[in-house]
Amino acid sequence: RQRTLAILKPDCVRKGLIGEVLRRIQDAGFTVKAMKMTRLTKQTAGGFYAVHKERPFFDELTDFMSSGPCVPVVLEKENAIEDFRALIGATNPAEAAEGTVRKEFADSVGENIVHGSDSVENGKIEAAYFFAESELVANES
Ligand code: GTP
Ligand code: MG
């Protein structure tokens, strides 16, 4: 089974949607393998989103991601990467399909409720950004 790293972003936490979003994730067949609440700093948010550092929205993105606590979660499922991105919908909620998490709950392209890894390889790197190897291995089935 594949793994993906999701983050319930600060807007998700502020809106009281942790349970609601996790419910949808679990109903879609994902198993939670690791989870915590943490707060990124502007610097650690910048490290996580380093691939976007030349983009015009980088400053706004790192301000937002460090604006409050977030909930990183390691999820497991067959085809987890692709299926999770289908579940959350397009980056911009205005373009997200009906029934997706972002369509339902997100306010804008910047504040879009949830992150999902875009490849198996990045999923491993991103999971290691938040969780110690022991926390990841301990919950293997
Ligand atoms: P993630 O799962 O968060 O990586 O989103 P994504 O893969 O759907 O989008 P992408 O990796 O291209 O962008 C990363 C994040 O940057 C997005 O989730 C948004 O929060 C933010 N972002 C992307 N485009 C814009 C933009 O035009 N304006 C702002 N403010 N934020 C943006
Ligand atoms: Mg992305």
Structure description:
- The structure is a single chain.
- By secondary structure, the chain is of the alpha+beta class.
- It has one domain: Alpha-Beta Plaits (2-Layer Sandwich), CATH 3.30.70.141.
- The chain has eight helices and four strands; from the N terminus they run βααβααβααβαα.
- A four-stranded antiparallel sheet has the order 2-3-1-4.
- α3 crosses α4.
- The longest helix has 11 residues.
- It starts with a strand and ends with a helix.
- The mean pLDDT is about 95.
- Guanosine-5'-triphosphate binds next to α4 and β4.
Arithmetic mean pLDDT: 96
| Small ligands present | guanosine-5'-triphosphate, magnesium ion
Number of domains: 1
Low-confidence stretches: none
Q: Helix count, per DSSP?
A: 8
How large is the share of residues in beta strands? 15-25%
Helix and strand composition category: alpha+beta
What is the CATH C level class, in words?
Alpha Beta
User: Strand arrangement, largest sheet?
Assistant: 2-3-1-4
Estimated helix fraction: 40-55%
Please tally the β strands and state the result: 4
CATH superfamily: Nucleoside diphosphate kinase-like domain
User: How many strands, which pairing sense, and closed or not: the largest β-sheet?
Assistant: 4 strands, antiparallel
Shape descriptor: globular
CATH topology: Alpha-Beta Plaits
GO biological process, one term: CTP biosynthetic process
Function: Major role in the synthesis of nucleoside triphosphates other than ATP. The ATP gamma phosphate is transferred to the NDP beta phosphate via a ping-pong mechanism, using a phosphorylated active-site intermediate.
Enzyme class: transferase
Protein name: Nucleoside diphosphate kinase
